[in-house]
Amino acid sequence: MNVGLQQTRRYILDILRDRGEATVDEIVDCLQELRGKVITPVTVRHHLHLLQQEALVVSPVLRRRPSPGRPQHVYALTEKAQEFFPTNYESLAERLIVQLEKQLPPATVNVIFEDVAQSIASELKFDGLLFEERLSLAVELLNRQGYDAAVESSPDGYLLHTRNCPYHHLAHVTQTLCEMDMRLVSYLTGVIPRRVSRMAEGDTSCSYLLPVSQPSNTLA
Length: 220
Fold this sequence. Notes:
elongated; Arc Repressor Mutant, subunit A; 2 domains; 3-stranded antiparallel β-sheet; Muramoyl-pentapeptide Carboxypeptidase, domain 2; 14% strand; alpha+beta
C-alpha cells in the first residue's frame, strides 16, 4: 500500500498527526469535513486496519468517555508514520555546517567530523576478523546508512563503491562531508583509502581504492 497514492488513508494520517489520537467517530467527522461527503465508520475501520498492517498506526487502546457510555478505541501514529510528513533536516544540516565552517577554525571542524565518522564506525566490532570479513561488515553498515555500497576486486586491492550519497545536496555546498566519508571508510576498513571517483564531480559513484593484498579466495 502506498499511502501517498491513497488519499483517504493520507487524510487519516494527517488527522492523527494533528490530534495526537482519535476515535473512529472523531476520524469520521474530520474526514467528512475534509472530503465534503459521507464516509462510514466501517470504511474508516478498514483503512485503519490497513494502516496498522503497514505499522503506521498503533493498536487501539480504550478511552473512557467523560459522559455515560461505552469506552471507545483510540488510535495514534507510530514513529514510522512520521516519515510521511515533510521535514527540514537537510536545510537545517546545511545551515549548521555552514555556521560551523564560519565560526570555527578548519582544524576544529575536521576534528568534529572525524569524531562523527568514528562514532558511526564504532557500531561494528572488528576484533579477530580477517580483512575480507571486516570489509563485508563495513559494506553492510554503509548500506544501512543509505550509501548503496558494493565491493569489487582490483589489481591493486579492492574498490569500494558507494552509489548513493545520503546527503547529496549538501556535498555540493561543502567538501567537509566528503572528507568525513573518507575517514569513515578508513575507520571501517582499517586502511587509508584513495578516492578514485566522486559523484559531486559528475561520476556515477564515490569509489575508494583499498590497497590491500588479496588472499586466494577474494571477494567478487
